Amino acid sequence: QKEDIEVTLLPAGHCPGSVMFLFQGENGTVLYTGDFRLAKGEAARMELLHSGTRVKDIQSVYLDTTFCDPKFYHIPSREECLSGILELVRSWTSLSRYHVVWLNCKAAYGYEYLFINLSEELGIKVHVNKLDMFKNMSEILCHITTDRHTQIHACRHPRDDDYFRGNRLPCGMTCRNGTPLHVISIKPSTMWFGER
């Protein structure tokens, strides 16, 4: 049998381009989330989830369940995480220009919110290996750099943890003007957070 189905893509807030799928047809409405990260109240502002003044009737939700486990009962909001990271990075980088932070980001995308906010709040660009992966995200380009002489790094290397143990950054930097760097690592990861 044939049935016309309307498919609507809704922002998932997970990484650039991530979407949730809303399927609507004669037999009802289904929401498939995939990986998503929505702050409280964001779904209420999604006009396409509403019909007039009320939320559309959704018969089934296929929910990404990566964190459907009691150890993930409380995941801090994006704003709480940003506030804590900002406080830590600000206090560390203000000690001297030789105090640097390495953001140990395991995925290629999904940290743009963090990079932009750190750069805007602290006036420090974030070092990344290459700019080309961000070329279609114009809003981030003024917040990242390939210049290694910055205090915030999100550079990557196949053996990142080995580099950090040697008090050097994945890009290879160990000192600046002959003065050794003091490096701290921040791992912005919900999975890592939940496991601890």
Measure the end-to-end span.
50 Å
Strand order of the largest sheet: 9-8-10-7-13
Q: Report the CATH topology name of the largest domain.
A: Rossmann fold
Shape, per Cα inertia axes = elongated
Structure, described:
Residues 139-192 form the DNA repair metallo-beta-lactamase domain. A hairpin with a 7-residue loop joins strand 1 (6-11) and strand 2 (19-25). This protein has five helices and 13 strands. Helix 1 (78-93) packs across helix 2. The mean pLDDT is 86. The chain has 196 residues and is α/β, with parallel strands linked by helices. The strands form four sheets. The protein has a five-stranded parallel β-sheet. A four-stranded mixed β-sheet has the order 1-2-3-6, with no helix packed on it. It has helices at 78-93, 112-122, 138-141, 160-165, 190-195; strands at 6-11, 19-25, 28-34, 50-51, 54-55, 60-63, 99-103, 126-127, 144-145, 152-153, 175-176, 179-180, 182-186. It folds into two domains: 5-66, no CATH class; 78-186, 3-Layer(aba) Sandwich (Rossmann fold), CATH 3.40.50. The radius of gyration is 21 Å and the shape is elongated.
Topology:
Blueprint: E1 6-11, E2 19-25, E3 28-34, E4 50-51, E5 54-55, E6 60-63, H1 78-93, E7 99-103, H2 112-122, E8 126-127, H3 138-141, E9 144-145, E10 152-153, H4 160-165, E11 175-176, E12 179-180, E13 182-186, H5 190-195
Helix pairs in contact: 1-2
